[in-house]
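Feature request disguised as a bug: please show the residue count (196) next to TAFII28-like protein domain-containing protein in the output. Example input:
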Amino acid sequence: MEPRQSVDPFEVAFKDVEELPPDSPTADSMEIESQIQTPAIVSTSPAVIAPAGTNASTGNNEDEDEDEEDDNVDINIRNISYKSDPDKAARTQAILSRFTEEQMERYEFFRRSRFKKSDMRKLLLSITGMRAVSEPMIVAVSATAKMFVGDIVETARAVMTDWKDSGPIRPCHIREAYRRLKLEGKVPRRSVPRLF
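Example output, currently without the count:
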């Protein structure tokens, strides 16, 4: 008797999409294509839900304005100059010159992506219970979170090549990447053990 594998609902949905004829567009694929063409619209931060009885629109409008202004900046990665360290500039240019178009596009998205300061401030306030959080703390946690997400994506890509999968990263790849990073000791452990 063959062991039965559990079925992931995300995998089932992905297989349903694969079964469509290749030249029949779906509404979801058109939405995805429009989001890929306009990356500034895509938010990398989770939605913050306001508690009942509060106005969700209140917040730091200055932080939101800064985030929107920063999103509109268009950077040409190949023309970045490092005035303080010419050796670093040479190494970076040597690496960037070897990138394929797909790798360069991914690198540019990674460079531009970041978490909103206002969302990170709200998250840190809820975690620490403090009344105010300093700007350097927000920057440090945002940078750490971005590096962690980068590690997860990089490991998920390695998982895809190991499994000989193609296409977008799926939840099963992310779970396996997290498992591998945890085995390598790159995922921080809980300071307080779980009770259940």
